[in-house]
Specification:
single chain; mainly alpha; about 80% helix
Length: about 230
């Protein structure tokens, strides 16, 4: 047998011994702490069951109730009756977006109500209240999320806080939604242009031209690019 083959066999034997030792050590550990391990596993199972029960017996019924209550609010919202849609009429049947968001927390409908409430406050020129509602919302939705984030930027524009407005416009644009991204890229670029940062404005306008060329914002984007380039000189 060659020395190389002998060394290879010895290495394989050592690896097998190491595996056997590791398995033996694991068996000893499990045997020694099996009661504690069973308690931990039992606790995990109970926790999972508790979460499932909570969702089925508490969240699901409340979700259904919230869905029923938000429908009338949406009707008034569609009619531009933003104050009524926001506050309701004081009855349990017509709570308004604000109260649905408060009373049905942890439901998807409460999250939607927070966004609606933010829009209502924006329309009513209550910009700080709009920000409070929008910041409570979950932005996971691919369509609703960017729009809500962008509306935060609009609120900050109204409050004269261009730094915060840029933060939210650019965050909304990063979602790469073909409908909302070019809109908020253009809003961010407009602020940069106003601030005299023409290089950044050209960069964002160009993204609209190259990446979102089918968007409404791209239809006349060349004139914005040229204007910013002239001002940059």
């Amino acid at each position: 047998m060659s020395a190389t083959k002998k060394n290879k066999n010895q290495n394989q034997d050592q690896e097998l011994k190491n595996v056997e030792n590791a398995l033996s050590a694991s068996e000893v550990f499990i045997e020694k702490y099996k009661n504690q391990i069973l308690y931990v596993l039992g606790g995990v199972v109970l926790l999972i069951l508790a979460v499932l029960a909570f969702r089925a017996w508490y969240i699901a019924p409340r979700e259904e109730m919230a869905e029923d209550k938000i429908a009338i609010c949406q009707e008034y919202f569609a009619k531009d009756s933003f104050q009524l849609a926001l506050k309701g009429d004081g009855t349990d049947e017509f709570l308004g977006f604000e109260n649905i968001a408060k009373e049905y927390k942890m439901t998807k409908t409460a999250n939607l109500a927070s966004v609606y409430a933010g829009v209502c406050c924006y329309k009513l020129e209550q910009y700080e209240n709009a920000i409070n509602f929008l910041k409570k919302a979950d932005f996971d939705s691919p369509n609703l999320g960017p729009a809500a984030i962008g509306l935060l930027g609009d609120c900050y524009v109204q409050l004269g806080d261009e730094k915060s407005a840029l933060k939210y416009f650019e965050k909304a644009a990063k979602e790469e939604n073909d409908l909302t991204a070019p809109l908020y890229l253009k809003k961010a670029a407009t602020i940069y242009e106003k601030q005299g940062n023409y290089k950044k404005a050209v960069e964002l306008y160009t993204v609209i031209k190259d990446k979102y060329f089918r968007s409404m914002q791209a239809s006349d984007i060349d004139k914005y690019i040229e204007r910013a380039k002239v001002l940059q000189q």
